[in-house]
Design a protein that fits this description.
By secondary structure, the chain is an alpha+beta fold. It contains eight helices and eleven strands. It is elongated and about 65 Å long.
Length: 264
């Protein structure tokens, strides 16, 4: 049983791994109100010695030696990190029927938990990472937004490498940029390849252009089929200059960071 590939890891505040776990019930939830917490069952956990000591200790011991549980990390089928979510205190535990060495836990959960309506999008990523651009194109609405959410979560393990030097040219395939999420997924793939991240909103896009996310400005961005985004992102929004559309603001941000945009 202990050779079974875990699906989740429990992570401490200091990045120590507390436990590998075989499954979680309740990781995908219905929409929550701000600050609302629910409980999640974490199944088949193989605890570290530190966690074993905590679980087997007295109430007084646990009060004096808090576990410091920080997050639950979702893995893909190859065992690579996919996403990490906030995890609250453990409120109950019991021996697992899966193995004498394992335990089942009940913990507080919520805040950034993924939506149950988008579970199929997460499973798509968990079983097969994107290996070519535009594999997200068939998703619409909230499913496309959830794809972008996964891209954002996963970027933690894709960043940290040196930026490619300035002066390069990147090609953005705008065929499917029919909404905001589509733009951010497309620019992420243009800069960092399938599943790549390069911002998830205007502020994040500006941050990425300052460096540390794969490309050093100034560079050239060739935006193919740009007329699709020009029409789809032609709405105004709060905070924008009068008569400026979302498409206009995107172009302005690029230009402010020295990016030469070629619209095709």
């Amino acid at each position: 049983m202990d050779d079974v590939q875990p699906k989740f890891l429990l992570i401490a505040e200091d990045e120590q791994i507390f436990s590998s776990c075989l499954d979680v019930e309740g990781v995908f939830v219905e929409a929550l109100e701000d600050g609302e917490l629910v409980t999640v069952e974490i199944l088949g956990c193989l605890p570290s010695q530190r966690m074993r000591d905590y679980l087997s200790g007295s109430k007084r011991y646990r009060q004096r030696n808090p576990l410091g549980l920080e997050a639950i990390r979702m893995l893909d089928t190859a065992g690579n990190p996919l996403a990490e979510f906030w995890m609250g205190e453990i409120i109950d535990w019991r021996p697992s029927p899966l193995s004498r060495e394992r335990v089942d836990l009940v913990a507080r959960w919520g805040e950034d938990a993924p939506s149950s309506r988008a579970r199929h999008v997460w499973e798509r990523w968990r079983t097969a990472r994107p290996d070519r651009i535009n594999q997200w194109a068939g998703y619409v609405g909230t499913d496309r937004e959830e794809w972008l959410t996964i891209v954002r979560h996963n970027s933690r393990w894709r960043t940290g490498h040196p930026d490619r030097p300035s002066g390069r040219t990147y090609d953005l395939d705008g065929t499917h940029v029919t909404d905001k999420a589509g733009f951010y997924v497309a620019i992420g793939e243009a800069i960092n390849g399938p599943g790549g991240y390069f911002g998830c909103n205007l502020d994040a896009l500006s941050d990425c252009l300052r460096g540390g996310f794969g490309a050093e400005a100034p560079f050239t961005l060739v935006w193919h089929h740009s007329h699709i985004a020009r029409e789809s992102l032609a709405f105004s929004f709060e905070g924008a200059d009068v008569n400026a559309t979302y498409f206009d603001v995107i172009r302005t941000i690029f230009e402010e960071h020295g990016v030469d945009i070629v619209l095709r």
